[in-house]
Amino acid sequence: MLVSGKGGVGKTIFAAALGRVLADSGRRVLVLEADPRDNLHHLFGVDPSGGAIVKAGPRLSIQNASPRAILDEVVRDRLKIRALSSRVLASPIYQHFADGAPGLKEMMLLGYAMQAAEGRRSRADVVVLDAPASGHGLSLLSAPQLVSDVITTGPLGTMARRIAAFVADPKRSAIVLATLAEESPITELLETIATIAARIGRPVDLVAVNQVWPETATGDDAGPEALWRIRRRMNERELARLRKRWRGAQATLPLVGEDFGPVLLAKLADALAPQLGRRG
Fold first, then answer.
1. DSSP assignment, residue 171?
2. What is the pTM of this model?
3. 3-class DSSP state of 116
4. What phi and psi values does residue 192 have, to the nearest 5 degrees?
5. Rounded to the nearest 5°, which phi and psi values hold at 245?
6. Mean pLDDT (whole number) for 115-126
7. Cα(31)–Cα(266) distance, rounded to whole angstroms?
8. What mean pLDDT comes out for the span 68-96?
9. The domain that contains 12 carries what CATH number?
């Protein structure tokens, strides 16, 4: 399950809540984080991943996955002789190739997630990938096809075609987009949904709307609750616009006044669980 969205809309929080709900339902879940800042562990109250798989609860693990580190690992796996692989990894030619080849690191990240979902890198039934923000997320989804168009033979070409087929198959993978019930994020979300359909040839499976202000008593726009009412009306207006433009599955998470940590995650998972349950 690939979770993406505009920067700042809470996609990491939703990915974590989704992972927690799936684990609580009995599935073995691995939540993969692509952000080099390694922030996911704060939500679960565990040690930083540092690239390792860290247990974060019953049937639930997290991991910070660096695309470049994954690419380097592929080289080591292919070149069994340590001295040879070290020489290749240190060479300027490899450095330029790894840093500059379009879509290569993104494809490696997706390939790692695919292998984890297939049980070759973890014992997970479901892998939740906290992907880069929307623009980079689209690049991530498009990367396997881009690489397979350029590299048509050899191990990389074969790998690219396999990953592209995995991403395009709605029975094996899901695309989840996070957003806020605000004008700019909803506009970008709708554009992203259309771009995914055009580039990848498949629909988005779920839209997650974060930080929806709770309902409050009606009244005039004055006094201490004025901002609350104004923000709630704005949320309702944008949610109505989203429902009018896109009829797919949606989940909403409330605005919760908690710090970025386990208490916030627990409350959001509690809010998400019944919504996912209704959708099977």
1. T
2. 0.87
3. helix
4. -65, -40
5. -90, -25
6. 83
7. 16
8. 80
9. 3.40.50.300
